[in-house]
């Protein structure tokens, strides 16, 4: 192991500290549970991206180790943890209003502990806001201090004083925290943390620190265990997975990691997100094409079709370079599902710039897009610009973007009618309990009739109807 790499692990003495506080809290909780005549309950609420979902599974894992049973409503809980997001204003507003609703729970039960963590409270102004305006929040910690959760919870419980973990922890990698996985067949595996790119609109580099990668052997161990436990869908996570291990001198890269993970035995598919187009290498695309363990799905956020906007976004690629990567992906894997992220209304975006975004949708013909209205983020360069696009113009462009993409998505889904696809079943559909839902390898959602007991299984579905956002069919 190289010097450089060892330095990005949380030092063993700090991890020992975490486990000691966890044990102390466990002892305390077993006494409390005995008094109450019931288990101690914890509820974890997550806002934002998959990285946050993965962090929440660690928070729940630590809570379990401290003697809590997990519950699915805040009303039942003795401990509420809110893992927040900062990527857009909407996510922050939602988190703040939800935290606001917990006030009455605390009033009813003064022993209730409320902790807030994640990207939103890694920002100074939001920490201050929680401190001043949400006095019933017991403790706060940012994204660099996930492993301090047991310490903060224990100290607050024993001493009673509110705790605001200062943002002084270095951004490192904490190995060995327990994980309480939500699903028994889909799993998240973080392979790296942080981001070095500083896209001019994005808050992530400010709230998740610089890139640091886990060791390949640690990731291989985790994926092997998941495969052995029967997990079918394993998604590797990082803000920019294509720069995996570039922060170290281990001599391997993301493509090597994918090739190594593909050698693990088991009936599972590997997914990954998110890829930055500037770093999506031919080597990676070749490895994907050669390994059928890797799902035929590529999420490659383009953000805009205008070279001027891409440059102002500090994306380090232009439209032609992006299209060349897409061409190579399609050449190597003609059956690939391609998805992307788009931002509309970036400062200075003109009608012509926006039309170029519509143009790139038509040229690439993505299966699906995740589209966002630009949201100014305090402290990012784009938020300082005076040429902010009018809200009305933003909404109008957003609607046109969706209309254009809906047509393409439908056209891409129609050829599935009459074909049989393999899906991983997710159980009853959220909106219609008469139907089950599942996802194809390319992450397309499929609805069909069947027994709830199919959840977590691979099924063959013959498609008889296609819409822009979903396929419908029959189990065969
Ligand atoms: N406003 C709108 N969308 C944003 N994204 C990131 N930052 C912002 C912002 N300030 C989008 C990008 C990114 C996705 C996860 O969120 O499209 O790829
Ligand atoms: Fe939200 Fe981005 Fe943080 Fe994920 S990384 S939780 S999307 S701000």
Please, could you describe this protein's structure?
With 476 residues, this protein is an alpha/beta fold. 38% of the residues lie in helices and 20% in strands. The protein has helices spanning 3-6, 12-36, 50-65, 89-101, 103-108, 124-133, 149-159, 204-208, 216-228, 254-262, 282-290, 307-312, 319-332, 351-364, 381-384, 391-413; strands spanning 40-46, 68-70, 79-84, 113-118, 139-141, 163-164, 186-190, 192-193, 212-213, 233-237, 269-273, 297-299, 337-344, 368-373, 420-428, 436-440, 445-448, 458-466, 471-475. The strands form five sheets. A six-stranded parallel β-sheet has the order 2-1-3-4-5-6, with helices on both faces. Strand 4, helix 6 (124-133) and strand 5 form a beta-alpha-beta unit. Helix 10 packs parallel to helix 11 (282-290) and helix 11 (282-290) runs parallel beside helix 13. Mean pLDDT is 96; it is low at 1-5. 5'-deoxyadenosine is lined by residues 87-88, 201-202, 301, 303, 341, 343, 372, 374-375, 377.
Can you describe this structure in just a few lines?
This protein is of the alpha/beta class and 476 residues long. The protein has helices spanning 3-6, 12-36, 50-65, 89-101, 103-108, 124-133, 149-159, 204-208, 216-228, 254-262, 282-290, 307-312, 319-332, 351-364, 381-384, 391-413; strands spanning 40-46, 68-70, 79-84, 113-118, 139-141, 163-164, 186-190, 192-193, 212-213, 233-237, 269-273, 297-299, 337-344, 368-373, 420-428, 436-440, 445-448, 458-466, 471-475. The structure holds 5'-deoxyadenosine and iron/sulfur cluster (SF4).
Give structural attributes.
476 residues, alpha/beta, six-stranded parallel beta sheet, 16 helices, disordered N terminus, binds 5'-deoxyadenosine, binds iron/sulfur cluster
């Amino acid at each position: 192991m190289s010097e450089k790499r060892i330095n990005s692990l949380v030092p063993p003495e700090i991890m020992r500290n975490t486990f000691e506080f966890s044990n102390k809290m466990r002892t305390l909780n077993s006494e409390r549970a005995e008094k109450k005549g019931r288990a101690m309950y914890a509820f974890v609420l997550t806002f934002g991206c998959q990285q946050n979902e993965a962090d929440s599974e660690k928070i729940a894992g630590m809570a379990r180790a401290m003697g809590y049973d997990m519950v699915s409503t805040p009303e039942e809980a003795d401990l509420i943890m809110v893992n927040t997001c900062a990527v857009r204003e909407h996510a922050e507003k939602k988190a703040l209003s939800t935290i606001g609703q917990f006030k009455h729970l605390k009033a009813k039960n003064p022993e209730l502990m409320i902790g807030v963590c994640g990207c939103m409270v890694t920002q100074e102004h939001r920490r201050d806001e929680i401190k001043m305006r949400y006095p019933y929040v017991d403790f706060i910690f940012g994204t660099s201090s996930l492993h301090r959760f047991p310490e903060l919870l224990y100290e607050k419980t024993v001493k009673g004083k509110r705790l605001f973990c200062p943002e002084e922890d270095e951004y490192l990698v904490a190995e060995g925290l327990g994980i309480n996985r939500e699903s028994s067949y889909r799993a998240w595996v973080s392979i790296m943390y942080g981001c070095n790119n500083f896209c001019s609109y994005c808050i992530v580099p400010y709230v998740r620190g610089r890139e640091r990668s886990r060791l390949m052997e640690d990731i291989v161990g985790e994926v092997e265990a998941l495969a052995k436990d029967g997990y079918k869908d394993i998604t590797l996570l990082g803000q920019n997975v294509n720069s995996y291990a570039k922060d170290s001198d281990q001599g391997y890269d993301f493509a090597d990691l994918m090739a190594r993970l593909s050698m693990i035995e088991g009936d599972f598919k590997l997914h990954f997100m998110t890829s930055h187009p500037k770093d999506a290498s031919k080597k990676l695309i070749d490895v994907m094409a050669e390994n059928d363990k890797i799902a035929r799905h590529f999420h490659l956020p383009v953000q805009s079709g205008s070279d001027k906007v891409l440059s102002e976004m500090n994306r380090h690629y232009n439209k032609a370079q992006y299209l060349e990567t897409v061409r190579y992906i399609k050449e190597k894997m003609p059956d690939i599902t391609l998805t992307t992220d788009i931002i509309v209304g970036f400062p200075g975006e003109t009608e012509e710039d926006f039309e170029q975004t519509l143009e790139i949708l038509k040229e690439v013909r993505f299966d699906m897009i995740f589209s966002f209205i630009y949201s100014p983020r305090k402290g990012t360069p784009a938020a300082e610009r005076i040429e902010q696009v009018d809200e009305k113009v933003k909404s109008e462009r957003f609607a046109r973007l969706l209309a254009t993409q809906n047509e393409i998505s439908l056209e891409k889904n129609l050829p599935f009618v009459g074909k049989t696809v393999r899906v991983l079943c997710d159980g009853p559909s959220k909106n219609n309990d008469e139907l089950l839902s599942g996802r194809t390898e390319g992450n397309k959602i499929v609805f069909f009739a069947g027994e709830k007991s199919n959840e977590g299984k691979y099924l063959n579905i013959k498609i008889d109807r296609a819409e822009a956002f979903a396929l419908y069919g029959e189990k065969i």
